[in-house]
Amino acid sequence: MRTEEYLEILTGQIRCRMAREEVAEEVRAHIEDQTRAFMSEGMERGEAELLAVREMGDPVEAGNELDKVHRPRMPWGMLSLIAVLSIFGYLAQYLLEQKIFQSAGASLNVYACPDLQKQLLFVLIGFALMVGVCFFDYTRISKKARELLIGLSLCTILGTSILGVSVNGAQRWIGAGIFHIDATMLLQLTVPLYAAVLYQYRGESWKAVGKAVLWMIPGFGISMKYSTAWMAAVLLVTYTVVLGVAVYRGWFRVPKRGSLAAAGAVLILLPAAGIYACFAAGAWGVYHWDRLRAMFGLESEVYHYPVHFAREWIAGSRLLGEGEHLPDAADILSPADSALAGIAGYYGILAALAIAGVLLFLLFRFLHISLKQRNQLGMLMGTGCAVVFLIQALIYIANNLGIFYVGNFCPFLTSGGSGTMITYILLGILLSICRYQNTAPERRRAVSAETTLSLQGHTRLL
Fold it and tell me: What 3-state class would DSSP assign to 229?
């Protein structure tokens, strides 16, 4: 039996198509090495190849053994955690809405609150969408990453320009029939795309690092255009972390220390340039500085109301059960923005800590899994997705502790169709990275040792 015939039978036993080519290349290299070893002993090539193939053992049995190694594995543990957080997050919003209704002397049911109905629908659709994305081969993104990033940026700009809708004075919404899409939420999708763009520059020098900095501008610049400084900051920090990880892992032929220092400089200079541009265009004025001072409660007379509510809830909370001297729930304008503080006030600090703890555990677990990925594309994409979630979650926790207030979106705990859908799409990408960690095509170097050990073990059994 010749090499190609052997490989055709062997790979036919492997059910995951994306792994077949990689396995075939590794087995072919193994056969070639053994063929050369026999030729060095004086055999003719044809005879040496036949003997090398024969020593590999039965192709069906070898293929079945390799199928066990190169098989997608559903990350049921992470999926279960996401399901639990989806339920708890919605329940937290429901319970706060219930307190608002009770303070007004009414009772709450989902049918009486359209916002709760819509959010429940968003969660259910988003969860189904996440599962679908989980089965998608994320490595395909790298082939058209630059085009996808440019296309997403253009669609965001054109969407708000042509189909723009003003919601509460904000001009960042895209009208899509009965739905309104928040353009700033869409920009979170630039994070995995940015990681995939950097993946295409592996092995290059300083020029690649310069390109990497330029690719930060679309997401950061569009966020500044819509005056959503919090999203611009989240994206910029995430991009910088992604670039720093790529440099630290030796993706580029540049000194690590100098490159990391340059990335830190970008983190300072790019926001400064953005703020200067806003001032030059007249987009920022005294009003924005007043809002910044109120955000941290620096005004001597007036607190920003969410900071006030969060501090009141935390101050009056107990370890378990409802606290004392809590603010009137009827005055809450956006329960989802203060879900943790509200839960701490009405149901106890331990309840709030449990929700926050599970959320942070999930996100740090995703970050850990991503950084340990053998596939370099999955490593960087997963790191970016986990970091963007972690930053938002930490900002949200600071909001609920009354440290400051930024009206940001937090996975699971805040409401809104755009944010919910984008959150579940990014979670789907993270689950896909976990699911295909043993089969992703880029694993050439990592597969070599694993495949060789599997084949050697099978040969010993024969």
Answer: helix
Pairing of strands 170-176, 179-182: antiparallel
Site of tokens 């607190």? 303
Q: Which residues contact 343 (CB under 8 A, 6 or more apart)?
A: 92, 95, 96, 351, 352, 355
Q: What is the CA radius of gyration of the chain?
A: 27
Distances (CA, A) of 258 to 197, 253, 268, 273, 311: 21, 12, 16, 22, 43
Mean pLDDT, residues 323-348 = 80
Instruction: Please tell me the predicted confidence (pLDDT) of residue 429.
Output: 96
Give this prediction's pTM. 0.80
Amino acid at 149: L
Q: Which of 196, 124, 140 is nearest to 384 (CA)?
A: 196
CB of 11 within 8 A of CB of 24?
yes
Tokens of 54: 């024969």
- CB-facing half-sphere around the CA of 423: CA atoms within 13 A: 26
Task: Please classify residue 218 by burial: count the beta carbons closer than 10 Å to its beta carbon, then call 0-12 exposed, 13-18 middle and 19+ buried.
Answer: buried
Structural contact between residues 142 and 377, judged by C-beta atoms closer than 8 angstroms: yes
- Exposed/middle/buried for residue 85 (C-beta within 10 Å: 0-12, 13-18, 19+): buried
Q: How many CA atoms lie less than 13 Å away from 334 in the CB half-sphere?
A: 17
In angstroms, the Cα distances linking 413 to 109, 239, 262, 425 are 19, 24, 35, 16
Grouping H, G, I as helix, E, B as strand and the rest as coil, residue 176 is strand
Residues 51-86 pLDDT 10s: 888 888 888 788 777 776 667 788 899 999 999 999
CA dihedral 113, 119, 121, 123 (to 10 degrees): -150
Phi/psi for 253 (5° steps) reads -85, 70
Which residues have C-beta within 8 Å of that of residue 54, sequence separation ≥ 6? Answer: 1
Environment class of 415 (CB within 10 Å of its CB; exposed 0-12, middle 13-18, buried 19+)? buried
Tokens of 446: 């990592």
- Please report, as a single letter, which amino acid is at residue 48: A
The tokens for 90 are 């919605």
How far is residue 246's CA from residue 252's CA, in Å, rounded to a whole number? Answer: 8
Give the Cα separation of 152 and 338 in Å (integer): 31
